[in-house]
Design a protein that fits this description.
heterodimer; A: mainly alpha; two-stranded antiparallel sheet; 2 strands; B: alpha+beta; OB fold (Dihydrolipoamide Acetyltransferase, E2P); 3 domains
Amino acid sequence: MTTGRRFLGVNWLAVYVALYVAFLYLPVLLLPLFSFNDSATPNFPLSGFTWKWYEGLLATPAMLDAARNSALVGVAAAITATLLGICAARAMTRYRFRGQKAMNGLIMAPLVLPEIIIAVALLLVMLRLGLELSLLTVVLGHVLICVPYSVTVLIAGFEGFDHSLEEASADLGETAMGTFRRVTLPMVTPAIVSSLLVSFTISLDEFILAFFLTGTDSTLPVYIWGQLRFAARLPGVLALGTIMLVLSFILLTIAELYRRRAARRANVDGGPLA
Amino acid sequence: MPDRPMIEIASVTKTYGRFNALDDASLAIRPGEFFSLLGPSGCGKTTLLRMIGGFDTPTRGTIAIDGQPMLGIPANRRPTNMVFQSYAIFPHLDVEQNVAYGLKRLKLDRAEERRRVEEALAQVSLKGLGRRGATELSGGQRQRVALARALVMRPKVLLLDEPLSALDKKLREQMQVELRSLQKAVGITFVLVTHDQYEALAMSDRIAVMFDGKIAQVAAPKDIYQRPVNRQVADFLGGMNFIHGNLVGENGTAIEVETKGFGRVATQRPAHWAVKGGAVTIGIRPERLRVLWDQETARHELAGTVVDRHYFGEITHLVIEIPGMDKPLSVTETNDFGADDIPVGAPIRIAYEPDALVAMAD
């Protein structure tokens, strides 16, 4: 099986994979490692296990404010992006219309545009419009970058939705409202939950837009950036970073599980007929 | 009025833009009948079925079910239920919940609802699978769930949109038999849409053959197969030898046609038939031509040469050239006497019964 991969008795593909994975994830893993380290400077050798940096976080009102702000922004951005995403995904899966490809491209564009450019542009527009910079302006910016993710997840969930399921429900005597409640909603709920979780996570981790568009209130990434100027606060930042890492990981895993459930349902029925 | 049709379709037309999906179709389907709409894709059969079910509205014309005009009555208030081509099983519900879906609105008491679900599951041989999730069913089982879910509503009419097309050949043939006996057992009017002529022939009491939005012929399977009104219907239902002839005598519906090869043929004038300058098409099915072996003779026989042979297991198709005829004849012979061993190029005699020759419109 390894024919063609070995050279000079070494499996270079395995070496490459190991280096690749180490480069990608080792630095990230150092974060939690040092966050439990007794010493105030992130250095080897480790000096001892401690929870104190985490305890310190809870005693920092500014951090708690930032966490509350992030949660507010995340929830607002996730709900708004998902509502907009539902409209777009429904239109794109249910109908064929002129400019569909272009519309899809426009929705996805924020994924590849330089975020700092978007941030500067939004800042200029919002100031010109006379909007006071606040968490609301951050939410608006986050909606813009959450919508592409939301639409991607929702299209996957809606794609297999067979219109004949709604017809079957009507055929069995159900009204339009009843059909929505008993068939449509349960069918699309997994995709919607998945979209909410993904959008929330994107918003939670986003820095550039939040940095440019916020007023006096900061979100967690902005707070972290502010703390980096003080060497003494680094362990606290590491602890906070670890929490955000774990939270993001959990949220995205749950989102993926929901997305798979949506995809499985779509495949039972309504998939293109053999 | 005992003869009142269960479904009465009167001059129904359905247009999409400038395209006529259905063009002035009229049809009366009897109570308790197994009726099939047969035709190639795009002939309007599904459009007609969907209009009966209330999923589409006729552009012109009316549909009545059991004497009630259906104009303006939506699908959820019609006495019809449908088995969808994709089955449309609710994937988030299990088998029992799928079957009970429509009953929930009737607000039956619990025991009665259970009894009806059990009865429907038994009718389609799904007893014991009630708790199975929709995602864990095979194609055949999903089809049975779709049937049970519709039958449990006790509709006056059951509509079936190509219900067997997604199944493999063996299961399809088994389901044909089961559907037919199920229909007999429940006594509900079944309207089946299919593009498979064998399916329609095997299951139906009557068949409507449709082309290009028009109903070409409505008749019992045997009539439609043996006495097709035109070449298109004849072709769609199976192989047919077409022979040109000239009209030489006419007496009411009885006509006499002079042909090359089959001589003078006495037959019946087909429905909707416009004589064009005396030219008439006569048809005979390949299996109505029979090989004569050795010294065997028949009252009506033809002599010719085998020019081609196709082997199909239980039968063989022989292509036989008859001197004086424009086109060679196709003959289907079962292989019990060795038709599969007749060499190409061999001289051969074939027999026919004159009543197998039918006149039809072009």
